[in-house]
Amino acid sequence: MNNIKAVIFDLDGTLIDSMYVWAKVDVDFLTQRGIPVTKEYTEAVRGMFFETAAEYTRNTYGLSESTEEIVQCWLDMAHHEYAHHVQLKSYVREYLELLKSRSVKIGMATSSNPYLLEPVLQNNGIRHYFDEICYTSQVGKNKSHPDIYRYTAHKLGVAEQECMVFEDIPEGIQGAHRAGMYTVAVYDEASKEAEACLRAAADRYIFDFSDMLEVFLCSETESCISSSALC
Question: What b/e readout covers 99-115, taking b as 16+ CB neighbours within 10 angstroms?
Fold first, then answer.
């Protein structure tokens, strides 16, 4: 593609190595209440924004806590890790710097929460790269729908077909495709079982962002088309 003017990133599992935090939160939260963690549960809440996942958890297990109390409990359990320990995935900073140097607009479309997002971006020194940060809670639909991607493109001031999206889960790839965007699936340990699905659904699959930098080097040293550095 040679018309990419903006790149939209997911956060968890795509830019940051954070999925271990949510696995721990799931285990700790349910274990404290004497409830076993099942694969069916983790798959059901994957990709939901917090309020929906909390309501699902409350209803599924008949918990006495309110949805709001469950959300706050999860956020408090995760906050320390996000603020102090969660790290960027390999070559993220270098790729963001490359995009910025080429005047490509950079956005984020996430199901996360500002309480966690802002500390982890600041702690890793990448907050300044993002022109817009958008949340699924702002559009009221999860990532299997195109709404969050269209909203982010609108905020960035670019057409949907001029965007490239990086995601680590099939639902995100599907939603971005429905928005008419070029999609890149990113390997993450937490979603490795979905690799075949991601490869089939996405326009490109990468193991880490060094793959994108290598394409850029190809364009510089082998006279590839200039846009190949982006996609």
Answer: beeeebbbbbbbbbbeb
